Amino acid sequence: MNTLLLAAVVVVPGGLVPAMVLLGRGDAVERLVGLELMGAVVVLALMIVAIGFGQPQYLIAPVVLVVLSWAGTLVFTRLLGGRP
Amino acid sequence: MSVAGAVLVWLGVAVTVLSAVAAVVLESIIPRLHALTPVTVLAGPLVGVGLALRSGWSLTTATLLLVTLLLAVTGPALGAVTARLADRDAHDA
Prior knowledge:
A: mainly alpha; Helix Hairpins; about 0% strand; B: mainly alpha
């Protein structure tokens, strides 16, 4: 296991477990913070894993995810806002 | 260059984990959003530049820097929108 894969092994549980805790408590807006954290952590983890495995063509996944995560969270804020 | 890249990646991982834990420990939503900001504007560039140093000048580096830039631009925007939503909820309550 190279150092990048070891970094991925650390960042996935170290970032996703707190994100899941945030997703599971509080009201809807507080859970939205957990969703934002999860999106950012998964983007970083996918970057590290793609380079760690020597497969840079998989970097298209974080490129797509960072845009979709941004748009998806904006949709949630719009829906939770209640009024235009 | 490879060692410097690994150091930057590990610094980014440390910032990510510390920020995530801080977001769980803090009670109110605004401090949580403040705790999350370093994940996108500090850990993202650290990881992206660290991986770019290991990859050299190539299309891979351009893709890494594109992801880093998008993450650094969209993260604070999402934080601001969420904070505005939380503020509106607090005033409506």
